[in-house]
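Box 3.1 A note on notation
Throughout this textbook, protein chains are presented in two layers. The first layer is the amino acid sequence; the second is a token string describing backbone geometry. Keep the layers aligned when reading.
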Amino acid sequence: MHASITAAYLARYRSAAADSPVELLPLTGAQRRFLITRRLAPLTRSDVAPVFFAYPAGALDLERLGRAATTVAACHPALCGAFGTVRGTPVLRTGGPSVEVARLDVAPGADTRQALREALLDWPLDGPALRLLVARQSDGGSDGGSDGGEDLLALALDHAACDEQSLGVLVGELTEAYRRDDRSPATGPDPRAVADFREAVELQLAAEEAAAGPAAQAHWGRRLGGLTGAGGGAARTTGMLVERLPAVGGSARGAIFPALLDAVGAAARRLHRAGGRSAGGRSAGGRPADSSRTDGPLALGYPWGGRPPGAPAALGCFLNTLVHAVPTQPAADLEALCDDWWDDLDHAGTPFDEVVRAARAAGSPWSGGLDAMLTFEDLQRRPPLVLGGVPGREVDLDGRPLAAPMAVSASHGEELTVRLAWDDERFPAAEAEAAFADLLAVLRRHL
């Protein structure tokens, strides 16, 4: 049997750590993929995880916000030091808080949101782990919610330092640190925090290695051996559509995610077929159209998982990317899709790289590129970001890069908000709107 990717990484990490003058911490499979991706495609910036909030103009004290961010970062190794590579091995170098807090200068009449987008695209390859960027628009907005007289705050993290659980912890701690306003924040995490991070990652790596055995390889080979890998690829410029639906209650809450899988699959089929039949054999962005993208299942990726049982609640990214094979035809019913999904969840710990290896061993030419992505956040798990007694109003920001040609994000709180983003160089807006209509129709039918 071949050696697992996790075991090979651990051997390289231990060799690098033994020779390093500073303490090096290991990384999870997801964290390693983010570091590798940014070096292969540094211009996409799809490995940045931002959330955007609006506050009344002048409500934020930037110096106080900087002290709060430093106070919080100093408690967490993932927000200190620097992610990087040593002899080609991804690691976290221990160090002090890795934070930037800045106000963006936006000229009167200029687009505040565009200024934020450009600032996030300009994220340095080597950090910081946490950025808080504030921009003000004083002459009114055009999105119905109006940015006029408001400050827009981008709370953005290196994705290697952040998953859904980490984001909820960070927002809660920022609220409290801003309230306390510690004038002498710590200069770095204490030894206990470093030990907790190391323990959490080592437990995650042990779980990843255990989940890469023959049974998992056989399962993913069966599930994904038909992927063609024709339609994937990152998107640098994107459009966005948003719909807010009533919250889902009662027993139907458990059906939200499989319903989203089916709905996103419907949108992906529509968009990729549209991209493959453009006039002159070329896609909307001028790329050669590949009709094989509709001849087999599409690869729909979604994050899943969390820290292993008993692991410390350390900040970081402990999610795996699972892959759902979107069939070429709509599912006959949700029950059949749920059966396949539950089978996949039985093997949810298999590292993504091992899943790709299993698909290729089963005869697929797929190299791991995703045709679509789906993320889901339960907002009841995330407290509001309250700064100076004012809770921020979360806002959407389109145009950000994607790791796939299309992505759907859904958040469930007082309502179910669904956002479709797509590569606007590849797919016409009219096709994206039709795909979104398909998505919403399927979602409403199931829920």
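The chain has eleven helices and 16 strands. The CA atoms of residues 204 and 308 lie 6 Å apart.
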